[in-house]
Amino acid sequence: MEARDGRTVSLESLRGKAVLLDFRASWCEPCKHSFPWLEAMLRKHAADSLIVLAVSLDKTRDQAEKFLSRYPATFTVAFDRAGKSAEAFKVEAMPSTYSISAGGSILYAKRGFDPKKTGEIEAEIRRACARGDGR
To answer: pLDDT at residue 25 above 60?
Structure first.
């Protein structure tokens, strides 16, 4: 996938760090709420080696950039117009969020975003940050 800054990004390149992987699109209403929360999680858990990677599934880069101008992010945003990564993760809803251990194991998957359930997701972030064994 191509990151917003032009570099290529892959989960393999992020091994050794806990990853919060978030699939999103500009038309996704819950994404407007989850994006600021993702930013807060990055700040809160950066010392724990957390990486937040948002994957935009917008059909055009312009759509994604309009969203990002309203909801800025310091974390990596990658573009996957073809949707290959979403296929690999069997994404069925927006946003879809995955907590991945430093060893590359998917520890948690969540479809949608409910501000009332962020504690559950954050517990999984802590678990991913604490775990590096890949199981």
So the answer is: yes
Boundaries of every domain in the chain? 2-10+18-129
Strand (E) positions, the chain?
2-3, 18-24, 50-56, 76-79, 96-100, 106-111
- Assess if CATH 3.40.30.10 describes domain 2-10+18-129: yes
Secondary structure of residue 96 in the 3-state scheme:
strand
Q: Is the pTM of this model over 0.85?
A: yes
CA 95 to chain centre: 9
At 135, the pLDDT band (50, 70, 90 cuts) reads very low
| Strand pairing category for 76-79 and 50-56 | parallel
